[in-house]
């Protein structure tokens, strides 16, 4: 029988362990409700503890789907690597510049160039969603733009797992390249999941933000991996919208992430 992880293209690495901590789903939800009680915006957070296989989730406000904004650039990079059968080491010239600028500096023109010139179609985002088992996510069209692709938090977590855990979709070389790009994000864009814990040793992230009339405010998303000084790794997806401005979105996301991190890492 094919397991769920195999169906999604993820190799089995650790069996889920029953949580022996005192933190329960109920107490986790209650604590984050309290932490976010005075915050504007909608949130959907998933934290996967690589050591235990436990996933912690929290939702406030509206549910899925969520506009991706620039976190979709990770999917664009993954699709480029897969289609070109590359681990990134052979990228030179324009391709290397576009990839670095797209991930490290979140440059929109570079993302558009990779989609249009290297991949050839906005539809390749939909192809990438299918490839990674993101069955409840939808690509943006050429008229609405790639940043209007929509995902769910579980789908996005499935994708993030493929970057950081053994994958049947990405090679080890492709994973290493994507991780390095995410670890090299410019300092002024290293907000978000980097506030999950004060004892982070390594963070690999991609953030996304933008104004959307569809949700009545700013979209602010942050995804990736954090490894603490004690070696524990957590994969994090935090999607949010309905913020009055970008900085409020960042501040509110970080408030929820810090609260979640304190609860999870102290157990």
Quick overview:
The chain is α+β, with helices and mostly antiparallel strands and 267 residues long. The chain has helices at residues 4-7, 25-35, 72-83, 93-104, 108-119, 123-131, 153-164, 172-183, 246-265, and strands at 42-49, 55-60, 66-67, 150-151, 200-212, 217-228, 233-241.
Question: Which keywords apply here?
Answer:
globular; single chain; Beta-lactamase; disordered N terminus; 267 residues; 7 strands
Write the CATH homologous superfamily.
DD-peptidase/beta-lactamase superfamily
- Our measurement of the CA-to-CA distance between the termini, rounded to an integer number of angstroms, reads 34 Å
Tally of strands? 7
Describe the sheet with the most strands: 5 strands, antiparallel
How many whole angstroms does the radius of gyration measure? 18 Å
SSE order, one letter for each helix or strand = HHEEEHHHHEHHEEEH
Proportion of residues in helical segments: 25-40%
**Average residue-wise pLDDT:** 89
CATH level-1 class: Alpha Beta
Task: Provide an overview of this structure.
- With 267 residues, the protein is an alpha+beta fold.
- The chain has a single domain (22-265), classed as Beta-lactamase, CATH 3.40.710.
- Helix content is 39%, strand content 19%.
- The protein contains 9 helices and 7 strands; from the N terminus they run H-H-E-E-E-H-H-H-H-E-H-H-E-E-E-H.
- The strands form 2 sheets. A 5-stranded antiparallel beta sheet has the order 2-1-7-6-5, with helices on both faces.
- The radius of gyration is 18 Å and the shape is globular.
- The chain starts with a helix and ends with a helix.
